[in-house]
Amino acid sequence: MTRAIDELLPQILPFAPSAPEPIALRYIIEACRELCHSARLWRVWHDVQVVVPEAQPIITVPDAEIVEIQAARLNNHDLQAVTVGWLDESHPGWDREAAPGSARFITQTNPRLMSFWPREKGTAQIRLVLQPSLNAQTLPDVLVGLHATTVGRGAAGMMLMLPTASFANPNLGAALISEFRSKLASLKVEHTKGQPGARLRTKGAFF
After folding, report:
1. How far is CA 45 from CA 16, 72, 85, 119, 128, in A?
2. What is the DSSP letter of 198?
3. What is the pTM of this model?
4. E strands in the chain
5. Residue 41 to residues 26, 113, 188, 190, 207: CA-CA distances in angstroms?
6. 152 and 125 share a domain?
7. What residues make up the domain containing 116?
């Protein structure tokens, strides 16, 4: 379920009532991107059809970019998520190799594009962490329904720090950003542990 970005305007305008709406909407997206990137709270399972020789499907979740590939399976076998740099170093020329094989790795080649190697066609199930795209027109319900206050304070704080804006208020802006970043830190722990309250474990982040 998605929600309109302007549903979050009431969370911002009390701090900067004279701010133009386009600027407010821009910073709502910026705050949502930072929240999703830091706390990893927008997670989806995404099914894609992989064709060869390209083996490079684009995610079709509207208004979204990939932050991280957390898990993936292709034709019922697990894949390892790695960076493009790791593939370049460990398997030079992988991106120019078109011969089909049994895929072992998945990587992210741009904010919306994934690549499988070796090349294998089939149906992939991928668990993704997403963030709103820069030109997003909608937001996931989780941001509006559960984190509206946090997003509003982050967006308002960023706006109020604009040095040339008539509505600038650096002191209030700094306080709101501090509150926003503090909330991000607690949400990151909360979503890393998960709702069952699992013990934290360290794991390499590839994206």
Report:
1. 38, 9, 25, 21, 6
2. P
3. 0.86
4. 2-4, 43-50, 64-74, 77-81, 105-110, 113-117, 122-132, 138-140
5. 20, 20, 8, 9, 15
6. no
7. 43-131
- The domain total for the chain is 2
Tell me which residue of 143, 110, 165 sits closest to 29, measured CA to CA: 143
Residue 54 one-letter amino acid: E
87 and 13 within one domain: no
Q: What is the pLDDT of residues 23-56, one digit of tens each?
A: 999 999 999 999 999 999 999 999 999 999 999 9
Please tell me what DSSP assigns to residue 147. Answer: S
Whether residues 90 and 125 fall in one domain: yes
All residues at 6 or more sequence positions from 33 whose CB lies less than 8 Å from its CB, including other chains: 131, 132, 134
Which of 137, 154, 172 lies closest to 12 in space, CA to CA? Answer: 154
